[in-house]
Amino acid sequence: MIPANKGGLFGAVLDGYIRWKVRGAFNALHVRGELPGAETPLLVYANHGNFWDAFVAHQLCKAAGWDGYALMDEQNLKRYGFLSRIGAFSIRKGEAGSSLESLRYCKGLLRRPGAAVFIFPEGEHRPFGRLPLRLERGIEVVARASGARCLPVAFRYCFFERERPEVLVEVGTPHGPGPLGVFRENLEAVVQRAAGAVNEEGFRPLLAGARGVRERWDAVRGLSPGGGRAP
After folding, report:
1. Cα–Cα distances in Å, from 118 out to 41, 148, 162?
2. 135: domain range?
3. What is the pLDDT of residues 118-127, one digit of tens each?
């Protein structure tokens, strides 16, 4: 197992780099729902449809004040080893010994005040919004073993009216451990709510991105985003 290796100068530089990358790739990152505080550990589980998921999770942790970690397939973490510096740790799928080691490690993280461990229980990239979701049982095992609060979150990447895509994050309601069906039901609920959004209304901006052609042109003309004359 590859453990997380957070902190240090490189970790700080990487934090800034990831923020810069997210801002450059998207118009904005928007959140709807309540991000729990960092008072107690949190097991966060989300759909997994995009390369950017780990970076978006990192930005959520920064915004909420969580000490963030994420479970990754070991082959992928070997390939992108720098992710261990922002909290990624590994599991080797299909190996009972590795699964047990990663479970123990995860339980240890979830004893730390303010820790938030992200798990993507679909186990691989799958198209957004395709229901029913197929979840692996590891999320249930980790939740029962740790007793942590569990938080369903949906990530959606979509274009509305701007040059760059938007990131929509739909946050559900924290709940306790339970059978796998509880996790599937809660994750499907936040995915469906995010899928129903036709614009950013009801979401709050968490991170603004770089301006596109439209925003730059409006700025030159002295217009606000709503079409009126800027103050």
Report:
1. 11, 12, 30
2. 8-221
3. 999 999 999 9
